[in-house]
From TrEMBL:
One of its GO terms (molecular function) is hydrolase activity. InterPro entries: Beta-lactam-related, Beta-lactam/transpept-like, Diverse_Enzym_Activities. It holds the Pfam family Beta-lactamase. This is Serine hydrolase domain-containing protein. Keywords: Hydrolase. It comes from the Bacteria. The keyword ATP-binding does not apply. Residues 24-400 form the Beta-lactamase-related domain.
Length: 409
């Protein structure tokens, strides 16, 4: 179990402790009025934790408080882990960003693209170019999620059992075979759409490495970084926070054990797009590796140039997500935000309409968890709670303001 304690007085790294305390005050209101069961936030600068705040309960029904070592379902904060893992194979020359994925997953050899029609009778045409590794990393492959509810192909995903999870009994290989049979939403490379692309990338990692995704993660990322609490199954059920969703009629928080139980036992599908559980201490170590240009405490996971390349905007013509993406749910603002290889990237801070730095890279998870890495300010921030979906409240934009207003040097 990794330790998580403040290591420096905030003033020593340019942060105002009284202003940081506004984070506690703000999220205490979320707990007091019932919006959140509990929460935990970490702010580090210059490689040192300057703020650790927490409140409420990890399990309201059992009366268990949030503690520094609470375990959280991080959902799509798994995606940066998978992206980093894939790039380790790129660095070894075993994978190239331009590789067609059908080299590793033959089922994607002849993708077809939706052009019109209903979910029941879609009209499709052949893809004009193959899906490439780069498309998976940037969510430009034309894949989608069933939970979007905005396109006929989303409905096709749901009809095949893919909405907030995967059909019972299907492993990652079988899920990829199923997705390959479904239409793409658009021609590969022509738009951005948040999707199961990172799950497919996880399967590419398995085929190229000859290891299961959990084994590869452990060997390449978790063990080298000392991330002892992170995996596809929780190492400690009692430390694991309960999952909550808002009642669709009243908005009141209610427990969701049907989805929450997924991390309590081994699963057939290892989802690199959303399957990990982690602790704040572990993910803090991961973000410090990112801030450190691919290395932490002398242990190097990626080369510094590789990490910098991942953290730049890769959307064509330096467009932002609003210009190149689809106006639907993602774990990020759209205006002013580009997308790199596994992260959102701030390209125009003014257009984001929120305190932030250009070059900051980030992502979040479906249960309202979030992180960002700000190389310019040498700052990282983490937020954990378990309220699904993450669009329920403006937690992330509020947290950004609360963190940046405390930077005073």
């Amino acid at each position: 179990m990794s330790e998580l304690t403040p290591a420096v007085d905030p003033g020593e790294v340019g942060l105002d402790s009284e202003r940081l305390a506004r984070i506690d005050t703000h999220f205490a209101r979320y707990v007091d009025d019932g919006r959140l069961a509990g929460w935990l936030a970490v702010v580090a600068r210059q490689g040192q934790i300057a703020y650790l705040g927490l409140g409420g309960q990890r399990d309201t029904e059992a009366g268990l408080p949030v503690t520094a070592d609470t375990l959280w379902r991080i959902y799509s904060m798994s995606k940066p882990v998978t992206s980093v893992a894939a790039m380790t194979l790129v660095e070894e020359g075993r994978l190239e960003l331009t590789d067609p994925i059908h080299r590793f997953l033959p089922e994607f050899a002849e993708p077809r693209v939706y052009v019109k029609g209903s979910a029941v009778k879609p009209v499709t045409v052949p893809a004009t170019e193959p899906i490439r590794v780069w498309h998976l990393l940037t969510h430009t492959a034309g894949l989608t999620y069933g939970f979007h509810h905005t396109h006929p192909v989303d409905a096709i995903y749901r009809a095949n059992g893919f909405e907030w999870g995967t059909p019972k009994g299907l492993d990652l290989a079988a899920c990829c075979e199923a997705w390959a049979k479904l239409p793409l939403v658009f021609q590969p490379g022509s738009e951005w759409n948040y999707s199961v692309a990172t799950d497919v990338l996880g399967r590419v990692i398995e085929v190229v490495s000859g290891q299961s995704l959990d084994q590869f993660f452990a060997e390449r990322i978790f063990e080298p970084l000392g991330m002892t609490d992170t995996g596809f199954v929780t190492p400690d059920v009692e430390r694991t926070a309960a999952l909550y969703t808002p009642d669709p009629r009243t908005g009141e928080r209610r427990r969701n054990d049907a989805m929450g139980a997924a991390v309590l036992k081994p699963r057939s599908c290892l989802s690199g797009g959303g399957g990990l559980v982690s602790s704040a201490a572990d993910y803090h170590r991961f973000t410090q590796m990112l801030l450190g240009g691919g290395a932490l405490n002398g242990t190097r996971v990626l080369g510094s140039r590789t990490l910098a390349y991942m953290a730049r905007n890769h959307l064509p013509g330096d467009q932002d997500l609003e210009q190149f993406g689809r106006p639907l749910f993602a774990e990020s603002p759209m205006a002013g935000m580009g997308f790199g290889l596994g992260f959102s990237v701030v390209k125009d801070a003014a257009a984001v309409r929120n305190l932030c730095s250009e070059g900051e890279f980030a992502w979040g998870g479906a249960a309202s968890t979030a992180f960002w890495v700000d190389p310019r300010e040498e700052l990282t921030a983490l937020f954990f709670t378990q309220l699904l979906p993450s669009s329920t409240h403006p937690i992330r934009s509020e947290l950004r303001t609360l963190v940046y207003q405390a930077v005073v040097d």
